[in-house]
Write a structure and sequence with these properties.
3 helices, disordered N terminus, disordered C terminus, alpha+beta, about 400 residues, Lipocalin
Length: about 400
């Protein structure tokens, strides 16, 4: 058996192992070399993704921080508190109402029949006669003082219907003329001479045509109740009145001399009216109503003037204070609206007024500056009556229907 060479055999084994190791080495070196490269690439890829994520996050935050917040609408302020009472008429009112307009200007003619009567008290004349002649007088004739005739004039009224708070004001003015009225009365009363002695007082019938002039000024204020079809305005106020009686006359004396006597009486007084205006709307263009009122008179005076042309005789009548009396008036009216700017009004009325008896005073008669006589006089109580009608054209202004359409709370 041949001998075994351990050295050679070992060398072969070592060589074989080495060759095997040498063949596998490149693969191993390649693995060792690429592994770090792949890891680096993965790291680079991961870092790029992280960088992109950071950029995206930063961009999103920047956009969020710089973006303007959405504009929110400001909350509506609370509506103003309406003033009570709020009465908003419908867009197209079915009824004709005076209070639907803020202002109504009414102007038109006034036609009436006038009758005036005095309650003549002759007791002062009787007492004067007794004092002077020491006997009771005999009364001859009938004392009388009446007037009558037609009056024609014009009346202007401006009515304001204030929406808040339903106030009503009405200034007014009226002028009346009686150019051809009749005075039907008697003389003032003169001592009667029978030829031998004075036995009484004589009243001689006397009549003449005369002129009356009336001026009325008023201011009323009231409050309106109710709405729509029915309405009631209760009011008060202050009135001022003036009445001028022109009693001038011309004639001839028993001696054939012409004369002219200028004589007038001027009455002025104040009064407080208390009344109501009741109206009902019949349709969109027709309204009916009535207005009763009472006037409480105060501060009344009468001043008489008398003079004779081409004469040195003068007459001085001091003013006297009239007694206070209440007067009454009732008016029924019919009103028709033509359009949104004008309406027509027709009214029938009756009124009663008068004066109480005045205080007594003395009239002084002078001639060439010297006092001739002093005679007591007074204004007797009296009563006047008027019945007539007025026809007015009314201008409608400031329609509340249109104003409330713009602002239903305040009507402006």
């Amino acid at each position: 058996m041949p001998p075994v060479r351990h050295g050679a055999a070992g060398s072969m084994v070592v060589a074989c192992l080495f060759s095997c190791f040498a063949q596998e080495a490149p693969a191993h070196d390649s693995l060792q070399t690429r592994a770090p490269t792949n890891l680096h690439e993965e790291i680079i890829d991961d870092s790029s993704q992280v960088t992109d994520t950071i950029k995206d996050t930063t961009t999103a935050r920047t956009a969020r921080d710089t973006a303007q917040p959405p504009v929110q609408a400001a909350p509506n302020p609370p509506p103003p508190r309406p003033i009570e009472p709020v009465e908003t008429p419908p867009a197209s009112s079915q009824n004709f109402l005076l209070q639907d307009w803020g202002k109504i200007i009414s102007i038109g003619p006034w036609l009436s029949y006038f009758y005036y009567s005095e309650d003549i008290d002759i007791s002062p004349l009787v007492q004067e006669f007794r004092d002077e002649y020491s006997l009771s007088p005999r009364i001859i004739g009938t004392p009388k003082s009446t007037e009558y005739g037609a009056l024609i004039g014009v009346r202007l009224q401006i009515s304001h219907y204030l929406r808040h708070p339903n106030l009503f004001i009405r200034p007014g003015f009226a002028l009346l003329l009686g150019p051809n009225n009749t005075y039907d009365g008697s003389s003032q009363g003169q001592p009667y001479d029978s030829g031998s002695s004075v036995v009484g007082i004589q009243f001689t019938p006397y009549s003449q045509q005369k002129t009356n002039i009336f001026l009325f000024g008023s201011f009323d204020m009231g409050y309106r109740f109710g709405q729509w079809r029915w309405s009631c305005v209760a009011y008060g106020g202050l009135d001022a009145k003036l009445w001028i009686r022109d009693m001038s006359q011309s004639g001839t004396t028993p001696y054939g001399e012409a004369y002219t006597v200028d004589m007038s009486e001027t009455y002025c007084w104040l009064s407080v009216p208390l009344g109501v205006i009741l109206t009902r709307s019949v349709s969109s263009g027709v309204l009916i109503g009535m207005e009763p009122r009472i006037d409480l008179m105060f501060f009344g005076q009468m001043k008489a003037l008398q003079s004779v042309e081409n004469s040195d005789v003068t007459y001085d009548f001091p003013p006297v204070t009239l007694g206070n009396r209440a007067s009454y008036r009732l008016e029924a009216f019919f009103q028709m609206r033509r359009n949104d700017r004008a309406s027509l009004r027709f009214a029938l009325f009756g009124m009663v007024y008068g004066f109480g008896r005045s205080n007594s005073d003395f009239e002084t008669t002078s001639e060439s500056g010297s006092v001739v006589s002093r005679i007591a006089f007074l204004e007797p109580s009296s009563a006047s009556y008027q019945i007539g009608f007025t026809f007015s054209v009314e201008l409608l202004r400031n329609s509340y229907e249109k104003r409330f359409a713009r602002n239903p709370i305040r009507g402006e």
